[in-house]
Specification:
heterodimer, A: MetI-like fold, two-stranded antiparallel sheet, 13 helices, B: 344 residues, D-Maltodextrin-Binding Protein, domain 2, 2 domains, five-stranded mixed β-sheet, disordered N terminus, signal (chain B), periplasm (chain B), SBP (chain B), Extracellular solute-binding protein (chain B), transmembrane (chain A)
Chain lengths: 290, 344
């Protein structure tokens, strides 16, 4: 029994050791130094790369900007995605549900690069939106929707939305409709039912969805690169520049590890929030039932 | 227990995987097979001209050339370094700027053999270095749509004109080895040793810039869609635009920075065959093909420049080149300053 358990655990242990091994290499390389005017790295072992990032305000500004934008986009995705998930879960038409879920899955499976270029066509000065605005006379000159943070944000929300909706959809679907009906029968309006029953009971799923979209937004690379016009630089783009422009792999490795720690801390906070709300939801519901 | 663990479908899957190993192995580069060499190159450069040259080379020597595409030469270098002691690339195409930095690695690169270096008298100045040979060269140019720009562009300072408000695509500092910054420095009274006017110039240019690009494809798309009217790029981009049916003009204002794309010889067991390929790319027929198909200038002095390039051939007195060692020493810092002061 013990040997079979060990055998079964071996593949998982192997995969995890490879994953963590990669970060161990990152940590080790981050302790070295780039050799000037070459693409090589060498000793001695030092923490200078970590200090260089953590004590340079312009570098920290990129980290804060990435954190801020990721948080903003995660919340925006949740605000937009929750009603969509609710509609899909509660629509009486199974055809409509399957159609919308299919559309979300197809959107999710489409590659980032093709989507980024599609958004260039839609958001550009001669794109669909600006052409429509000019045609209707709502504006007499083009609105800059791309090659800036707005364009990157629009494309990222589009990218993140399916992940959030598909995460939350299941929780809403599993919530008995009788709960909402009972509340309505007792005189609660739609908004109150949503605020007091549906959202609190599905909050663990909302927190889970937020965690997923936040981590995806934090690591965004292609959308800022293609749609940012060189003016939107998130931490992934910064790390890329250190590897491929400055050829400073030790510094890139150090920044990557700092990035990982910050992202994990944020995700741990979200997990704590998720567990807390789950306990609250279970306790509150049980109390009322009793 | 083990027998039970490896039964049925699992055992068949394991046996199938083991049986497939020879097939997988045969698809990987053979370590000392000189019937074929591996060339790491940009996809569009390969498709436009080098594929044809490689086929002719195979007909002439029996050595097949297998392309390994790279999105950028920086990415190519990182891939080469990651391979460690067994690089599976024999010839690496890169920019002269990056080659100057990368070829200092004695473990990865070889000196060019005499069969290549003896061609130096036939080539333009600067085309051969101990560890790289230029395949072609090109001037930094201005490409503009004739349906969107009324008056011709003749000087770099034209780009600062208010008539170009919100209509330029300019390479960022990482692209074309900081040439946009160096052009800005020279156009505003500075130099590679006095770079501050370059940053001031780019800041002043910023209202005219729609995008600081890092990808030629993205910049071409912006020009094709009419997002920008004018592109600071190489003449090869103009050919690709014309191939799409978009009317563009090319200007090569003075001083004209010249750049080389070069071939380096990687230290592999197939180095002899790889050196033959490098020499073949420098042959008159290959150089003619590069000029006509790729719209880049041939490095051989005796090769005629393609018809499409005749009108934009810069006057040698107006060309300028930069100390690549200085560029390499500063490019990381320039990029960070550019991001802080200009792009954001």
């Amino acid at each position: 029994m013990r040997i079979s358990q060990l055998l079964l655990g071996f593949p998982a242990a192997l995969i995890l050791s490879v994953l963590f091994g990669a970060y161990a290499v990152f940590f080790a390389v981050g302790l070295l130094t780039a050799v000037p005017n070459t693409a090589d790295v060498a000793g001695p072992v030092t923490l200078d790369n970590y200090a260089r990032f953590l004590f340079e305000p312009s570098y920290l500004a990129i980290l804060w900007r990435t954190l801020w934008l990721s948080t903003l986009l995660a919340v925006l995705t949740a605000v937009l995605g929750y009603p969509v998930a609710y509609f899909i879960a509660r629509t009486p038409s199974s055809f409509l549900r399957r159609f919308m879920l299919g559309a979300l899955v197809v959107t999710m499976l489409a590659g980032s690069v093709s989507r980024a270029y599609s958004w260039l066509v839609i958001l550009g000065n001669r794109g669909l939106i600006n052409s429509f605005l000019l045609w209707t006379g709502l504006t007499d000159k083009t609105v800059p929707l791309v090659y800036n943070e707005l364009g990157v944000s629009i494309a990222l929300v589009h990218f993140l939305l399916p992940f959030f909706v598909l995460t939350v959809f299941g929780a809403i679907k599993n919530l008995p409709t009788s709960l909402e009906e009972s509340a309505r029968n007792l005189g609660a309006g739609r908004a109150r039912v949503m605020a007091k029953i549906v959202i609190p009971l599905t909050f663990p799923a909302i927190a889970g969805g937020l965690a997923i979209v936040f981590s995806l937004a934090m690591s965004a690379f292609v959308f800022p690169l293609v749609l940012g016009g060189g003016r939107v630089r998130l931490l992934s783009n910064f790390i890329y520049d250190q590897v491929f422009v400055a050829f400073d792999r030790p510094f890139a490795a150090a920044v990557s590890l700092i990035f990982l720690v910050v992202a994990l801390t944020a995700l741990m906070l979200l997990t704590l929030l998720q567990n807390h709300t789950r306990r609250l939801a279970a306790g509150g519901f049980g109390g009322k039932g009793a | 227990m083990m027998t039970r663990f490896l039964t049925g479908a699992t055992r068949r899957a394991v046996l199938g995987a083991l049986a497939a190993l020879p097939l997988v192995a045969s698809a990987l580069p053979a370590s000392a097979d000189t019937d074929e060499i591996y060339v790491q190159i940009w996809g569009t450069t390969w498709q436009s001209a080098l594929q044809d040259i490689a086929e002719r080379f195979e007909d002439a020597t029996g050595i097949a050339v297998v392309p390994v595409t790279q999105a950028s030469s920086s990415e190519g270098l990182v891939r080469l370094q990651s391979a460690g002691e067994d690089p599976e690339i024999d010839v690496w195409f890169t920019t002269s700027s990056l080659a100057a930095r990368a070829t200092q690695n004695d473990d990865l690169f070889l000196d060019l053999p005499e069969s290549v270096t003896e061609l130096a008298p036939d080539l333009v100045a600067g085309a051969i270095a101990p560890r790289y040979a230029a395949a072609y060269f090109y001037p930094m140019s201005v490409i503009y749509r004739t349906d969107m720009v009324d008056a011709p562009i003749t000087t770099w300072k034209d780009l600062w004109d208010a008539r170009f408000a919100n209509s330029l695509a300019v390479p960022d500092v990482t692209t074309y080895a900081g040439r946009s910054l160096l052009i800005s420095a020279i156009a505003n009274g500075g130099s590679i040793d006095d770079i501050d006017p370059g940053f001031e110039g780019l800041k002043a240019l910023s209202p005219n810039v729609v995008m600081f690009y890092s990808s030629d494809a993205t910049a071409r798309q912006a020009l094709a869609q009419g997002e920008v009217s004018t592109l600071v790029a190489t003449p090869a981009q103009a050919k690709r635009m014309r191939d799409q049916g978009i009317e563009v003009e090319v200007a090569t204002p003075a001083p004209t920075p010249m750049l080389f794309d070069v071939m380096t010889l990687v230290d592999t067991p197939r180095a002899d065959a790889a050196a033959k390929f490098i020499a073949y790319v420098l042959s008159p027929e290959s150089q003619k093909l590069i000029s006509e198909r790729l719209n880049q200038f041939p490095v051989r002095k005796d090769t005629p420049v393609a018809e499409a390039l005749q009108s934009i051939k810069p006057d040698p007195e107006n060309t300028i080149s930069f100390d690549e060692a200085k560029v390499n020493a500063n490019i990381g810092e320039w990029n960070e300053r550019f991001q802080r002061e200009v792009a954001q």
